[in-house]
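Hi support team,

I've been running sequence recovery on a batch of backbones for a student project. Most finish fine, but this one hangs at about 90% for roughly twenty minutes before it completes. I'm not sure whether the input is malformed or the queue is just slow. I've pasted the structure tokens below so you can try to reproduce it. Let me know if you need the job ID as well.

Thanks,
M.K.
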């Protein structure tokens, strides 16, 4: 005679299931909480465990994990999780915790008995296959024709660190890093901070059911650069193709960082459940193409792995350096009593020269300018630039237009206005023809080399 263990804190459910199984010829054990259930399971080695999901003290996930991690429990029992909530995340989490099946309450006796008659395996997974995407993604010719002439840049999120909605940020906006570039038939998104949510809404409205194709370039995986992605509507349409590209993180790969921010404790839908054609690509080369757009990446001076991108389009060049701390400025900081050696400073200067080369003659540069000169002194080593350096580097590099970017969450509109004014004065002092604006949500720049 086969043995079943039923665990549920609801005495009625316990009685009904026990009776159903006994009538079908099973020997039945019962427990009214997860703790006792696991103890009983270890002692009695049932063939099947039917466990409720939400129980105080020791829930169904914990029951699954306790049984599955018990190396001496052989052969392992079949585990059926039962629950009154029917969210996809609860089902997949149960299976991940080690359940073979998931049944929604109220339990129909016939259904439970039918599942137990099946030959092992995971009937839940068999019943609801993953999204069946076709082998080839839908045709995006219409979309490609509709975008990209002349090339343009639009700001959807300009803030660093954390989103800052409210009265004091109405002018420049409170969303974190996200920029849309349309160029030569490509839609390229620079970073996926909270600004990407509104971009997604705009695209959904603009292209309706026409398949779209988006390349998202990630500078690095700090929250302010990836946190909006789960709210990017186009990723939820099975017609769309989304490629996320970036460099491997300091501790784990890009794919793993992006998927883990959508894991169940943080978000209700997993990345695997997104129905779009989604591909995460870890870049190895520092130069690559997205269609006709040539992209160059350069490592930035910022905690962890962080890059800046330079895009060459038919209308001009765009450089995006959202988070960076100039080497010389950092090394000159009086960290010790003794002055920095000449070698150290020369080395730092070389590193900054590389950055100047990277943005040289660029039409549009979007650069970290989080602090003013005074604030920087108390933020040395935080990985960000002060506005004075952003202007100096851009002037030396003969940049045409600089956007001050990655605004500090503590800076209100008035403060950013004053930083913009100071930056313009500085450019004039440098005798540079550099144009400077503080980046503002909603602003669009059209790149038209021919017209210029
Ligand atoms: Zn940042
Ligand atoms: Zn960062």
């Amino acid at each position: 005679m086969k043995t079943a263990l039923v665990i549920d804190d609801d005495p009625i459910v316990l009685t009904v299931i026990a009776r159903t199984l006994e009538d079908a010829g099973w020997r039945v054990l019962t427990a009214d909480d997860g703790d006792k259930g696991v103890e009983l399971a270890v002692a009695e080695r049932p063939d099947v465990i039917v466990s409720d999901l939400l129980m105080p003290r020791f829930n169904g996930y914990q029951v699954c994990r306790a049984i599955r991690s018990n190396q001496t429990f052989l052969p392992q029992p079949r585990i059926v999780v039962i629950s009154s909530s029917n969210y996809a995340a609860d089902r997949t989490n149960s299976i991940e915790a080690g359940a073979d099946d998931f049944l929604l309450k109220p339990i129909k006796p016939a259904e439970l008995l039918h599942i137990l008659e099946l030959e092992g395996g995971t009937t839940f997974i068999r019943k609801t296959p993953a999204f069946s995407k076709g082998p080839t993604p839908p045709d995006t010719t219409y979309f490609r024709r509709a975008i990209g002439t002349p090339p343009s840049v639009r700001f959807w999120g300009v803030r660093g660190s954390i989103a800052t909605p409210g009265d004091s940020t109405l002018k420049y906006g409170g969303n974190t890093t996200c920029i849309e570039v349309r160029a030569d038939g490509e839609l390229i998104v620079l970073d996926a901070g909270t600004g990407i949510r509104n971009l997604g809404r705009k695209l959904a409205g603009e292209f309706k059911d026409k398949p779209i194709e988006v390349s998202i370039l990630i500078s690095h995986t700090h929250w302010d650069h990836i946190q909006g992605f789960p709210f990017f509507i186009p990723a939820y349409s099975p017609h769309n193709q989304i490629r996320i590209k970036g460099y491997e993180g300091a501790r784990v790969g890009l794919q793993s960082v992006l998927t883990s921010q959508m894991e169940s404790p943080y978000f209700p839908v997993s990345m695997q459940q997104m129905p779009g054609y989604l591909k995460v690509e870890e870049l190895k080369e520092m130069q690559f193409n997205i269609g006709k757009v040539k992209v160059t990446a350069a490592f930035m001076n910022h905690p962890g792995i962080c890059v800046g991108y330079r895009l060459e389009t038919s209308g001009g060049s765009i450089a995006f350096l959202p988070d960076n701390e100039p080497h010389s400025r950092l090394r000159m900081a009086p960290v010790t009593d003794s002055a920095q050696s000449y070698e150290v400073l020369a080395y730092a200067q070389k590193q900054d020269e590389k950055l100047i080369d990277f943005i040289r003659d660029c039409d549009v540069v979007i650069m970290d300018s989080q602090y003013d000169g005074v604030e920087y002194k108390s933020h040395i080593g935080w990985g960000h630039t002060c506005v004075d350096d952003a202007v100096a580097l851009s002037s030396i590099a003969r940049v045409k237009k600089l956007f001050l970017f990655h605004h500090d969450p503590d800076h209100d509109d008035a403060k950013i206005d004053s930083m913009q004014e100071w930056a313009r004065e500085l450019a004039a002092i440098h005798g540079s023809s550099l144009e400077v604006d503080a980046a503002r949500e909603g602003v669009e720049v059209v790149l038209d080399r021919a017209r210029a």
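--
Follow-up from support: It reproduced on our side and the slowdown came from queue contention, not your input. The pocket of zinc ion (ligand 1) is lined by residues 160, 222, 224-225, 322-323, 406 (CB under 6 Å). No action needed from you.
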